[in-house]
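Quick one:
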Amino acid sequence: MVAAAYSYLATTPPFREWNMPDGDDVLFKVGRFRTHCAHYQWDGKQHTITASANSIGHTDTLIRKVAHEMVHLHLEELGMDRRGTANTHSGAFRRLAAEVCKVHGFDPKIFY
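Output:
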């Protein structure tokens, strides 16, 4: 379902204009963390998006959280992701997230 959410979102604006990696080039996992719903990681070779089975129980939550992680992935592709710093949701993240929220009807106050 995580891969399907990614593939769906990648065909919609603004993601389709961002030249997102094909879903086959992203590793999708299901985790069980309780502190957050999803996580994006780049290890220098592989993009990974992990969704938490303990924190996501509805399709709309899955779609919103995968979209959030896709913003991080896009920023990583641009060399602009700030993971590992105190401010992972930089101005660039917030600008892109606002665009995603406007198109998809997500509440920006909970998207970050």
